[in-house]
Write a structure and sequence with these properties.
Strand content of chain A: under 5%
Largest sheet of chain B: 7 strands, mixed
Shape of chain A: elongated
Number of helices of chain B: 8
Order of helices and strands of chain A: HHHH
Structural class of chain B: alpha/beta
Shape of chain B: globular
Strand order of the largest sheet of chain B: 3-2-1-4-6-5-7
Number of strands of chain B: 7
Largest sheet of chain A: none
Distance between the termini of chain B: 39 Å
Oligomer: heterodimer
Helix content of chain B: 40-55%
Structural class of chain A: mainly alpha
């Protein structure tokens, strides 16, 4: 019970932070909605753990928590790869900027 | 032939001044030399400016590949018909620069690579470095498809005619640019060759040079660029 209350509290705080970031225009609406769905889904599973067990049985995994972990690991892998690609692109654009500044300074010598 | 020598430099104020002094003493005109300070913390840029050569600088460190791209673009804008890349730490010799220019001038090749393993023994090269370079050569052949006849895939000295610059101006920022240029050139219909060069390693240049562990990052960068 205590852990459920704690996780629910974390979920509520996470939702508040998400929509605060949206209000600050730090993230876009689709991003806020997707993140909110993830947290709400987590809070539902915390409140109704039997749902996780039924999902696990449906997909052929032994325990509900195992199914959640597998999904989380796969999702984190996808996110990490996307972050890697985004960082690579940023590095390339940044280098173009640094190069342009260097050439501009040289031309103006 | 209007040639340009591009020298990427990172924290090389002391050695760079010696390299540039040697060049100028041997009648290389200042206008032919392009030094790119890659975000150094020392006086590299000031040294280049005071020596009267073309001095460019990156506001932050971006890697040797990025510095070579910047220097090559500047050289082409200046009107260079041939571009030579060499290091700032005094390992490379001016007579080898002249030999490369001659190859490009006569049209024997449009892209020429310097090799430390074509009969001229490198001075002061540690055994561990030879082992790593041999492994790098195997990697280049089997993972990147570099021709086996390439004897020194990791050489930092190369020269090319103006029309071959496209092999260089889109490469990666870091040390993987070396393998990338090699692959771009050897897998195109560009006429290329290798010539022997004399490389002199000193305690300073070895202390500052690439660690063997950097080879793994280079391999990763090259493979991910190729397959992703």
């Amino acid at each position: 019970m205590i852990i459920q209350l704690a996780l629910w509290l974390i979920g509520v705080i996470a939702l508040l932070i998400t929509w605060r970031r949206y209000a600050q225009r730090a993230i876009r609406l689709p991003e806020a909605l997707i993140v909110s769905l993830v947290w709400i889904a987590g809070m539902i599973v915390v409140a109704l753990p039997a749902l996780a067990t039924r999902f696990a049985a449906f997909v052929g995994v032994g325990r509900g928590v195992d199914a959640i972990v597998y999904v989380a690991v796969a999702a984190l892998g996808v996110i990490a790869f996307q972050q890697h690609v985004a960082l690579r692109r940023f590095e390339q654009r940044f280098s173009k900027l640094v190069e342009a500044l260097a050439l501009d300074e040289w031309r103006r010598k | 032939m209007k040639y340009a020598i591009v020298i990427p430099a990172y924290n090389e104020a002391t050695r760079l001044s010696q390299v540039l002094r040697t060049m100028l003493d041997q009648q290389v005109a200042e206008s032919h030399v392009f030094v790119v300070d890659d975000g150094s913390d020392d006086d590299t840029f000031r040294v280049a400016k005071e020596m009267g050569v073309h001095a460019l600088r990156h506001v932050v460190n971006r890697g040797q590949g990025a510095a070579l791209r910047t220097g090559t673009r500047a050289a082409l804008e200046w009107g260079a018909e041939a571009v030579i890349h060499m290091d700032a730490d005094g390992q490379h010799q001016l007579e080898d620069v002249q030999a490369m220019i001659e190859v490009l001038r006569t049209g024997d090749a449009a892209f020429v690579f310097g090799s430390r393993f074509m009969g001229v023994q490198p001075q002061g090269m540690p055994f561990a470095r030879r082992v790593v370079l041999s492994a790098a050569r195997l990697f280049s052949v089997y993972a990147l498809g570099i021709p086996r006849r390439m004897t020194d895939p990791q050489s930092g000295m190369r020269g090319f005619t103006r029309d071959q610059a496209h092999h260089v101006v889109h490469v990666q920022d870091g040390m993987a640019h070396c393998s990338e240029i090699l692959r771009n050139v050897t897998q195109s219909d560009t006429r290329w060759s290798e010539i022997p060069i004399r490389v002199i390693y000193t305690q300073d240049s070895l202390a500052k040079g690439q660690r063997a562990s950097a080879a793994f990052k280079i391999a990763w960068d090259v493979l991910t660029r190729r397959f992703l």
